[in-house]
């Protein structure tokens, strides 16, 4: 509908912009080519920090870890080629399945909850009018809290005996569980704690909600749509692209969750001695293998397995999203 | 594509070079030993938290000064990632202090240098240190670390809680498991659904080796090569210790209450009567003496089921990492830090500092036999506080009777295997037998892997 009405950009717009950039003095084809080359080099110059960063800090280490995953590298002694032994061990190690399952459960619990919570907060922000800026800042501030502090916060707030959460539940006559020690409640507790830093998603949703054309709501109202129908048939389709983006980003972040759980359960010798498998997330286990046990080769294989898991999940999400995500200008 | 003009090429090259150098110029963060010059001697894992530590470091500074070396103490507890990264990057500290249970693992992987030459050159007699502490810092008979501390474990009981419940410290013993369970049930206190007082805290998982030993089981063979985690006596010990936890509402409630203790404050669990009794490391006597010297403390030894005193000892050890820049100075440094003269001088300084603050000085046990004797008989004096004086005497006595988990090349992996097993039982995921069977497989696999090529 709208996509059909939206005029496509003229094919000449690119060259038109170039022509404007050239100005009247560079009207000849030779001068135009020279200016274009300058633009290209300037563009490379501007993106070079990212390219250097990507090659040095991402692509290089990824390639190195791929090579290391076929070795018994321990960072100190001599390194030997072990073929696919590390990958074979992934399927024999019960902790891999355990940590992967913990991580998937965490992601399944956290992603929809965080998205729904952020959307509710963003919609409330729309209603508060001129004070939206203040609340936007307030919601975003917790994102600035170091994850290590959030891990400690989890232990304090969710302590089954003296924690604030159970005190509040107590007011309603609910006896709160032992969030930090009962293996059943550890993951839900960490999921709830993670909502502390939902601010960035709120800001993204707020921007998306503000960009929904008002006339669509007016049209829906004229057609007799109530609040829920408007939300279901106008708001959600209009922000579906944003929802999809945050779904991908939150899923990846959840599958890579580390700091909060590590701080709360594995960070010190004391916490480590009490750490139950309930908080053993995949990246925590990877870190243990690499830096506690010095199995760098095996840890590299673990990293590549996680990469594949994330890749597969993202591809599935992208495929499924084609049925639900609406992009302006889309032909469907 | 045609090449850009020379001026643009120069600009572009300059730009690319600038950005390429940016990471190198800005550095990558973290604690680096590389910035220290050739005249700087670096340490890792050491904290100058009291006079006992700072006085010894002063002695080491004086010892290395004639060599033109300045000691840089990188404050903070030992961190395996930091240490490993430093060694792998060829940026190792000159001396490192770590939990002695880790020494075997790092030694097996070549991250630490044997002290054989050092001991010979500096004429250090390992017989001058507590045997178990030397064994813990050794692997296959080669010494890799000298003791920097010696921790014993004793039983600390709140006598007021016992009296209020119609019992006494004389009747309270860990040697009789049936009586201990009954006492645990009596001393615990609940309010609503919450546990408000732990009757007896068995301190598992961390003290599981002591419970196993109390029942006659070792977790690993004396040569450190064969795990014995699923020994029936170890399984029985774990079953019993978990029973004590379950008798008080289960792990969730007990741990939640334990986590809420103000352990280092004036309103600690003894003052607030949140705890009846527990086995604990000896350093906690010192903490209680400073924070709450007037508590009704009833210290005693932890006893095995045979009724005999049992002490699981542990502690830190000084080692020299592979690729240390000043290995000879490191040897001199370690000798100085662990020498009788240094320890006694430091203990006097600490005693003076403690007494000046108005707290009772409860002595120090160092792992150096001669130093411990002098500290016990000359530095420490009875304070008049009967409870803490008794605790101090127990600690001095226990230091001569400790057992240690034999050193092994799997290091932290072995420890993690049994700790996780206990946690799985506490959280109800597995039975003691299942958990220790799994731990046995994991630990033995780690030991076999670590022993590969070391036969």
Write the layout of secondary structure elements.
The complex is a heterodimer of chains A (332) and B (455).
Chain A: H1 2-5, H2 13-22, H3 29-68, H4 85-92, H5 94-127, H6 132-140, H7 147-157, H8 164-171, H9 183-194, H10 199-210, H11 214-222, H12 227-255, H13 259-265, H14 269-274, H15 282-292, H16 296-324
Helix pairs in contact in A: 4-16, 5-9, 5-10, 5-12, 5-15, 6-10, 7-9, 7-13, 10-12, 12-16, 15-16
Chain B: H1 6-26, E1 40-44, H2 51-64, E2 70-74, H3 80-88, E3 95-99, H4 100-108, H5 116-121, H6 131-136, E4 138-139, E5 142-143, E6 146-147, E7 153-158, H7 159-164, H8 177-187, E8 189-191, E9 194-200, H9 208-214, H10 232-246, H11 251-259, E10 275-281, H12 283-291, E11 297-300, E12 302-303, E13 309-312, E14 316-319, H13 327-337, H14 340-356, H15 369-379, H16 386-398, E15 402-403, H17 412-426, H18 432-451
Parallel strand pairs in B: 1-2, 1-3, 9-10, 13-15
Antiparallel strand pairs in B: 3-14, 4-5, 6-14, 7-10, 7-11, 8-9, 12-13
Helix pairs in contact in B: 2-13, 2-14, 9-10, 14-15, 17-18
Pfam families (chain A): BPD_transp_1
Organism (chain A): Streptomyces endophyticus
Membrane topology (chain A): Multi-pass membrane protein
Structural class of chain A: mainly alpha
Q: Which bin fits the share of residues in helices of chain B?
A: 40-55%
Write out the CATH superfamily name of the largest domain in chain A. Answer: MetI-like
Q: Give the low-pLDDT segments of chain B.
A: 1-5, 12-35
What's the rounded overall pLDDT mean of chain A? 86
Which architecture of the largest domain in chain B would the CATH scheme give at its second level?
3-Layer(aba) Sandwich
- Strand line-up of the largest beta sheet of chain B: 2-1-3-14-6
Largest sheet of chain B: 5 strands, mixed
> What is the CA-based Rg of chain A, rounded?
25 Å
Could you say how many structural domains of chain B there are in total? 2
Greatest interface (CB-CB under 8 A), with counts per chain: A-B, 45 and 52 residues
Main sheet makeup of chain A: none
Task: Output the CATH topology of the largest domain in chain A.
Answer: MetI-like fold
CATH architecture of the largest domain in chain A: Orthogonal Bundle
CATH class label of the largest domain in chain A: Mainly Alpha
In total, how many beta strands of chain B? 15
Oligomer: heterodimer
CATH superfamily of the largest domain in chain B: Periplasmic binding protein-like II
Kindly estimate the percentage of residues of chain A that lie in beta strands according to DSSP: under 5%
Organism (chain A): Streptomyces endophyticus
Protein name (chain A): Sugar ABC transporter permease
Family (chain A): Belongs to the binding-protein-dependent transport system permease family.
Region (Disordered) (chain A): 1-33
């Amino acid at each position: 509908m709208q996509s059909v009405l939206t005029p496509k950009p003229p094919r000449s717009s690119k060259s038109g912009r170039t022509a404007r950039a050239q100005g009247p003095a560079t009207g000849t084809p030779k001068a135009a080519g020279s200016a274009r080359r300058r633009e290209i080099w300037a563009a490379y110059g501007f993106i070079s920090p990212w390219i250097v960063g990507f090659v040095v800090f991402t692509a290089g280490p990824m390639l190195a870890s791929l090579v290391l995953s076929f070795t018994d590298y321990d960072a100190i002694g001599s390194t030997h080629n072990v073929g696919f032994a590390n990958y074979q061990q992934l399927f024999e190690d019960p902790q891999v399945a355990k940590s992967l399952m913990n991580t998937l459960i965490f992601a399944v619990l956290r992603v929809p909850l965080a998205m729904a919570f952020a959307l509710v907060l963003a919609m409330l922000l729309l209603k508060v009018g001129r004070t939206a800026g203040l609340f936007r800042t307030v919601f975003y501030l917790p994102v600035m809290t170091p994850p290590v502090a959030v891990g400690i916060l989890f232990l304090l707030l969710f302590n089954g005996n003296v924690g604030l959460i159970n005190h509040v539940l107590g007011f309603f006559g609910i006896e709160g569980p032992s969030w930090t020690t009962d293996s059943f409640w550890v993951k839900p507790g960490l999921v709830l704690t993670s909502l502390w830093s939902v601010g960035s998603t709120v800001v993204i949703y707020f921007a998306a909600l503000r960009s929904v054309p008002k006339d669509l709501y007016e049209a829906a109202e004229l057609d007799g749509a109530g609040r829920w129908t408007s939300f279901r048939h106008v708001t959600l389709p209009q922000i579906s692209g944003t929802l999809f983006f945050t779904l991908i980003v939150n899923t990846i972040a959840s599958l890579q969750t580390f700091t909060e759980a590590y701080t709360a359960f594995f960070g010190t010798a004391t916490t480590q001695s009490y750490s139950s498998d309930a908080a053993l997330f995949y990246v925590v286990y990877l870190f243990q293998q690499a830096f506690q046990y010095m199995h760098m080769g095996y840890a590299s294989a673990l990293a590549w397995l996680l990469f594949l898991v994330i890749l597969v999940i993202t591809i599935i999400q992208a495929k499924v999203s084609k049925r639900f995500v609406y992009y302006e200008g889309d032909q469907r | 594509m045609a090449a850009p003009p020379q001026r643009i090429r120069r600009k572009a090259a300059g730009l690319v070079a600038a950005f390429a150098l940016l990471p190198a110029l800005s550095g990558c963060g973290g604690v680096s030993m590389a910035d220290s010059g050739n005249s700087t001697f670096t340490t890792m894992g050491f904290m100058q938290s009291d006079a006992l530590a700072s006085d010894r470091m002063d002695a080491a500074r004086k010892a290395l000064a004639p060599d033109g070396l300045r000691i840089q103490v990188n404050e903070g507890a030992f961190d395996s990632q930091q240490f490993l990264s430093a060694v792998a990057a060829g940026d190792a500290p000159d001396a490192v202090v770590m939990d002695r249970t880790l020494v075997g693992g790092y030694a097996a992987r070549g991250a630490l240098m044997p002290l054989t030459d050092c001991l010979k050159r500096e004429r250090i007699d390992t017989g001058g240190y507590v045997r178990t502490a030397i064994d813990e810092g050794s692997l296959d008979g080669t010494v890799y670390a000298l003791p920097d501390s010696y921790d014993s474990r004793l039983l600390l009981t709140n006598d007021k809680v016992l009296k209020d419940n119609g019992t006494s410290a004389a009747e309270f013993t860990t040697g009789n498991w049936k009586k201990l369970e009954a006492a645990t049930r009596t001393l615990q206190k609940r309010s609503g659904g919450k546990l408000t007082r732990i009757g007896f805290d068995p301190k598992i998982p961390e003290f599981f080796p002591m419970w196993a030993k109390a029942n006659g089981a070792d977790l690993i063979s004396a040569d450190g090569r064969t795990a014995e985690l699923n020994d029936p006596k170890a399984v029985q010990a774990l079953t019993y210790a978990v029973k004590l936890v379950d008798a008080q509402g289960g792990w969730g409630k007990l741990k939640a209450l334990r986590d809420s203790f103000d352990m280092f404050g004036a309103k600690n669990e003894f003052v607030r009567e949140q705890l009846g009794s527990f086995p604990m490391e000896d350093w906690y006597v010192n903490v209680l003496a400073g924070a709450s010297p007037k508590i009704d403390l009833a210290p005693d030894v932890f006893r095995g089921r045979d009724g005999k005193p049992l002490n699981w000892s542990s502690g830190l050890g000084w080692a020299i990492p592979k690729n240390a820049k000043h290995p000879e100075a490191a040897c001199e440094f370690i000798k100085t830090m662990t020498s009788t003269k240094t320890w006694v001088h430091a203990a006097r300084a600490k005693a003076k500092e403690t007494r000046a603050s108005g707290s009772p000085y409860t002595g120090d046990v160092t792992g150096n036999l001669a130093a411990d004797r002098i500290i016990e008989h000359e530095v420490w004096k009875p304070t008049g506080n009967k409870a803490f004086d008794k605790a101090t005497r127990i600690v001095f006595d226990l230091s001569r009777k400790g057992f240690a988990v034999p050193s092994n090349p799997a290091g932290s992996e072995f420890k993690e295997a049994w700790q996780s097993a206990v946690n799985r039982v506490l959280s109800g995921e597995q039975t003691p037998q299942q958990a220790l069977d799994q731990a046995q497989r994991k630990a033995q696999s780690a030991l076999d892997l670590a022993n590969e090529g070391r036969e």
